[in-house]
Amino acid sequence: MRIAVVLAFALSLRAQTSLRVLPAETELATRESRQQLVAEAGSGGFHEDLTNKASWVSSNVKVAAVDATGMVTPVADGTAVITAQASGQSASAKVHVTGMSKPFQWSFRNHVMPVLTKMGCNQGACHGAQSGKNGFKLTLRGYDPEVDYDVLTRQSLGRRVSLADPAGSLLLQKAIFGIPHGGGLRFKKDSLEYRVIQEWIAAGATPPSDKDSEVTSIEAFPKSAILKPAQEQQIVVRAKYSDGRVEDVTRWVKFSSNNEGTALVDDSGKVKITGPGEAAISLWYASKIIYSRMISPYPHQVSDAEYNRLPRRNYIDDLVAKKLRSLNLAPSAQASDEAFLRRAYLDAAGILPTPEEVEQFLADKSPDKRAKAVERIFEKDEFSDYWAYKWSDLMLVSSRRLAPNSMWAFYNWIRDSVKANKPWDQFARDIFTASGSTRSNGALNYFFLHKDPIDLTENVTQAFLGQRLTCARCHNHPLEKWTQKQYYQMANLFARVGIKSNTMDVNDVVVFAKTTGDVNHPRLLRPLAPTPLDGDPMALDSTVDRRQHFAMWLTSPKNPYFSRNIVNRVWASYMGRGLVDPVDDVREANASSNEELFDALIKDFIAHKFDVRQLMRTIMNSGTYQLSAEANATNQYDNIYYSKYIVKRLPGEVILDAMSQVTGVPTAFAGYPAGTRALQLPDTQVKSQFLTAFGRPNRVICDASERSVDPSIAQALHVINGDTLNKKLSAADGNVALFLKLGLSDSRILEHVYLSAFSRYPTEAERKPALEALAKVRNAKGDARRQAIEDMLWALLTSKDFLFNY
Amino acid sequence: MIRLDADRAVEFCDGFRRRDFLHAGALTSLGLGLTHMFGLKAAGAVDKSKDTNCILMMLVGGPSQLDTWDMKPNAPIEIRGPYKPIKTNVAGIEISENFPRMAKHADKYAIVRSMYHSAAAVHDTGHQMMQTGRLFQGGVEHPHFGCVLGKLKGSKGDVPPHVLLPRPIGNTGGNMPHGQSAGYLGKTFDPFVLNADPSDPNFRVPDMLPPDYLTSLRVDRRRNWREMVDKSVSKFETSQDARLLDSTFHQAYTLMSSQKAREAFELHREPEKIREKYGMNRFGQSCLLARRLIEAGVRFVTINMFETVFDEITWDIHGSKPFSPISCYRDLVGPMFDMAYSTLLEELRERGLLDNTMVVASGEFGRTPKVNPAGGRDHWPQVWSMLMAGGGVKGGQVVGASDEIGATPKDRPTTPAEVAATIYHALGIELETELPGAQGRPIPIVDRGVGPIKELFA
């Protein structure tokens, strides 16, 4: 039946088509320039790549020629219009030929290196390995053309590149497998790749120079496409150079798909749709990364009424609805009041609402009661505890390396910041601009935890920028745009952080700005001008505190990574999944699931001066956050586009505290006052079998995956047989004892425990069997009734309704 | 409701305890959706006549080939390092003097001296490949060998099919290591993780039995009432974590209620003499526990020799802090491995288990042929040595060879993908088997064209 629906749907859309050619205007700037054009038809919301089906004509074959595949080659300077005809329509692109009168030479930087990179010669598995291969070592993915040139032309007695006998050069002979080569055949003798290298050598093997034009940006055609199952789409990539010219570089781009379940891409940039969903095809060329998005909508028919079920309370809802429309996913219904309240308490403060709070909320008939509840939660101490705990995860607060007093100072500083709703930029500035005692200014312990510039560089970028920079420590980041040079420019910003003991107090440590000291680039063996990522350099001899310069850059509204990171982390915490996932891998090649929404959230966050609570308010009040967790017929597999609330297992600390809350028996933590909740602990080293089994981070490395919420057999065994829950249930002074003391009826007890554990009344279907079971022991002797109540409560506290947020 | 337990489901879920769950609705609740069922090549995926088990020892840190099982006594001092070779009970095979007990059992194991991989020289890549056969890219989380076996053969008796001892590999420098879970097969097939130190004098599996104050009647009642409470909820149907929660409870109850399963974990049942023979340390006792678990029906045991390479003495001999010195091969790590490995092979042989239990021991890479200025050796994935025994492997042989300085494979270069094929082959799993990936997309257990290391079985 589903197939019939799809067919009918496809037929109804056949009516309108529009053809276009990409890129619409381009340049062939050298005699070797080529341009692959893409002919693309749009029809009923779908795209279709007609490049190979279209017939191609040039308006002036004396200027530019085009072949049957849409490949344009230059003939003489001038302008030609290239027209594609398909499905009874035509469309064209303008091509300016400008380079035929100029002399041409292959460039080492812009031609030879891209060939070596695309052919895999300098990849990690081959000569790009740390130790090279067979005595021949290139820089990984060609990050250092000067070094590679030297290796190719000067080492190995000049046999690799032979000016006297270009074709006899080892470089070519190995690549065409003319002589044995561990890497096998890389390209054939009649290929363009061969010709580029052969002609470059024959022309004198010109070295790379500072005057070479460099790639400033790359561009994809199409930027996105909506395709049907099994369709194919060619992606064309154009590079823009510092001298203003553009080139089609598709042939030497490295392609990869982030979701092979939706789209596969081959070496030539041809995409094939494998299933419904969205895939970001990343395009890597000369250390630049962009992506082209391939969407294949689900084969559902969703009516306007279904989309309108998602209330539009703010821009989040508009942009989520837009995305859902593009994929044919219908949003779930709105969550009930009960589900909303429980969810809001857990997500914002890590606690359950009390039975009284639930009853009051349900009884409230005012239309803005959800918004008011959100504000009430923000004012709770538990809200501050919860986010202080989360930011402590990020800052790695723990007694592992900090003395107890220092750990408390750091923790208290974080908690005070949350309580005061300190803007996120100020939070960061307070850390990076301060000097003095780590006791009196807890924020400074950050520098005690991360003592050397390397450690600081990597943790700062992870915690505050969501970037994993570690790869670039030894070579250019293979998946990212960050270069090793940028890494050491950044690291040098932290070269002058001094730490000494406080002369007044032996137990204290003082952080201060030194006026000397540098971090050397390991290969250049000299320090580079301290420069934040993509930021402005500062002079090496400047005596300004380098951290000051860093902090200014870090917290500037113009810094694209700073806001992106925190917005994504907060969003993920509420919505169950980051717009970019995982949250600490916000690199450019890791595409977000809704870029337009991400952008809007970031702009809004900056417009509100980095107000974290305002961001939470916007999220919590959106219709999207308030969607039900129950799936409909279209969105059961969606866990990415927020068409329903994503069910998530509660963090271990939250479960433990909630068990304490419902049973009325607090957890004892050694060394902490009675009544301390798990989420109030400043430290994850505190002994707790429960928390270890349910997963808590060690706070050793800044890595979101340190916190695991996966259910395990060990967890099940612990709640069944372990001491934690069992002792809470059997405690002499807990809620079970209280129920009996107060002489509550079974029905009232049941109501109370449902309200406190699930934030709702039991349904009739739940009430009946439970009361029947309890009635059997109503008049039994001894502890039988108490045990039955304990066991009923146990069943509630180990159920999915309790352990999950939904 | 459609019942699928006629032929297909039973075919590959053979031995799976929850046979009564095998109809469509319940299958979904176990993470085995319809698409998955059909994504799986049911026919012939598993050779039932072959009931082979596997113990995989991850020698975390990466042993140096030159100081263990691929000595180069004739190389210059800065290559050959501080140790001397000794003869073994097989003529022509020599290993390092650090392994005198292993020398007496060389007839039981084969040494593959030409292992290599070409990914980045960091611990994580090797851990991924040596446990799944693959490097992680394109967003696909490949499953551990043991999880694949669990998926295809289910459990045998009341014990889980795959147990991980004593703890997962933690931080080794990069991100948290991949390759230790069931990946795209779903968490239902994740290994049972011990999370305890079996050499601890008070060792027991945490919370295996109810406390004294809880009668078994109450445990049963709680279980029934929990199912009653949980019945009403439809919102969890599409949550994999929620399905997994159900399955972990089920497995926990199975484990608890089986005396045989419980006893398998009780090391105190072993004579003190035997325990000492394995070495009274975490690795030694894990090896002993592995033998007991195999006897009880566990199909696959993964033993991580170490959890991390930082601030602990491991195979990771960079020569400077927080890593280990080369001398630890003589003083600590070498003897620890020597005792446990030799005793395990000896015991498996004595108990008639060696023929149907494959024992694989390997690091994630080798180490630089040249001793570094700190007197240690750094990461070197270009060549290393792996040990294979049992499960049909012919012992007393060397497969492959490295060059004269132990820098690259000279003969029969062997990849982790081939190790995967070798293990699957020994376990009786056809290499053409496809597993259901995301949205049911079939993923072959090994890439087409990759075969087992045939020499081992000759």
What distinguishing features does this structure have?
heterodimer, A: 806 residues, alpha+beta, four-stranded mixed beta sheet, 29 helices, 25 strands, 37% helix, globular, disordered N terminus, B: 458 residues, alpha/beta, 30% helix
Q: Report the major sheet of chain A.
A: 4 strands, mixed
* Termini Cα gap of chain B: 50 Å
What is the arithmetic mean of pLDDT of chain A? 91
Global outline of chain A: globular
* Oligomeric state: heterodimer
| Rg of chain B, alpha carbons | 22 Å
For the record, the CATH architecture of the domain at 53-63 and 109-180 and 277-457 in chain B stands as 3-Layer(aba) Sandwich
Instruction: Summarize the main sheet of chain B.
Output: 8 strands, mixed
Folded structure, characterized:
The complex is a heterodimer of chains A (806) and B (458). By secondary structure, chain A is an alpha+beta fold. Chain A is built from 29 helices and 25 strands. In chain A, the strands form 8 sheets. A 4-stranded mixed β-sheet of chain A has the order 2-10-9-6, with no helix packed on it. In chain A, strands 12-20-19-16 form a 4-stranded mixed β-sheet. Chain B is of the alpha/beta class. Chain B has 15 helices and 16 strands. Chain B starts with 7 loop residues before the first helix and ends in a 14-residue tail after the last strand. Residues 1-44 of chain B have low confidence and may be disordered. Chains A and B meet through strand 24, helix 22, helix 23, helix 24 and helix 27 of A and strand 6, helix 8 and helix 9 of B.
